[in-house]
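Recall from the previous lesson that a structure prediction takes nothing but the amino acid sequence as input. Here we apply that procedure to Glycosyltransferase family 4 protein from Marinobacter sp. MMG032. The sequence below is the only information supplied.
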Amino acid sequence: MIAFFSIAPFLSGSERCLQLILLESKSDGMQPVLVTSRNSPLKKWAQDNGISHFSVELNPIKVNSKTRWLYEQVKLTIFLSKKGVKVIHSNQIWSYRAALLPAKLLRAKLICHFRDPIDSGARWWLPRIPDLSIFVSSYIQKQFCSNFEISSNNNLVKMLDPVKRPQKKSFNERETTKKVARANFHLDPNSLVLGFIGQISPVKGLLTAIDVVSRLKRNDWTLLVVGNDPSPDQQYLKKCIREVDKKQISERVLFLGFRDDISSVYEAVDMIIMFSTEEPLGLIPLEAGGFYKPSIVSNVGGLPETVNFGQSGWIIDPVEYYEAVTIIENIKEEDLAEKGYKARLFTESINDPKEYWKSLGKV
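The prediction returns the following tokens.
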């Protein structure tokens, strides 16, 4: 029996991946256990999908006394013991410390999935190396090995996060779906539609994307911006909107905010542009590939691992990002179709929840 720990109070890419892994484990005949912080939206999701769930404080920093933390740990250990848990999987490093005492008392194996940048500060969260360390990218694995002493006994594996993919479709089916999606967004069925999907924050590079599209000489493009600014004052979003107005492209750049129907966005666009300045991996190009859409990404962090350069998309220099203008200017419809098909094949080859589930058998 495996218990999965998730500390995040919101649904992000990490939690979407965990959902796929949990569903895959169920389809494989397992009965996984999900442990979350009390304010996690995963609680309702677990109930809706018949997954055993337990809420408890997973962050020791938020507990104001050692006695209170010990009380939370004892409750958690009793629950895991009753479920017969033999393996504890921390979905991120931030919930790993909450797994240490229960694992020791239950003699359970420990797994940690490293999804975030790792520096010397990670040592506090990781007082002992897990029995199995899973890295979201080679980039994160290298950071880990630079900050921790690794022996031949340490079990390390790179597994790109799984993403949900729609059923395979023929070219004609994809074109029909695209026309319907564009009609819902009131888009020109024959225009070039670019997509920016993600958190609207400086690290995601939306201002760079706006600068790139403003330099396009072709006049048949639209940029869909999907996501929220997580800051209380929304200053970065406001800055992006002012920049769009300044460059007089407000009719072509559509700010859609957060969308539950993200599949419709992928179906409507021709390609994704992602000019982040830092990314442990970057799920958006992988998700786009599932919808037969290529991506242009900056060569930072783990992003290059999500694109088969020249085949399923393009990787550009984060400083000399103007080369993206040339790529977009010269792209043809047949090129998009070919690269979109290869993006789907590439995503399928490197990204599968079944493979992730198999890797857990290494502990």
